[in-house]
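User: Run a structure prediction on this.
Assistant: Running it now.
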Amino acid sequence: MTPASEEARRYLQLADDDAAAFRGLLKLPEVKFRLACFHAQQAVDKLLKAVLIFHGIEYQRTHDLHTLATLLLKHGVTPPCSPEELTRLNPFAVTFRYDDTDIPLIRDAVVEEMLDAMRRWAGEVVQ
């Protein structure tokens, strides 16, 4: 096992932790949707980075899912969700963490579908 593949697997585990937090928080009626989605965004961020690391693709430090997915595409790696689809999660990384409103930009089922598709894909790439 190479250091890159070990690091990529570590990112998959970190993504799984965030995905579990997302799903757990969704079940709590007292927790705002935006807080749960923060963890979904973080999970997808780590999944994209796991694949980037696995392929040896250098990336700038960012949590912008569009930027990370576009970088993969430029290197011939196609994630199951387009950069435009993933952009819908970007506001949960920072914008809504410091806002007390809960604006439903995306439905929880859509977030779960994206998260599941991204995890399956990353798991297949990073074996």
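The chain has a mean pLDDT of 92.
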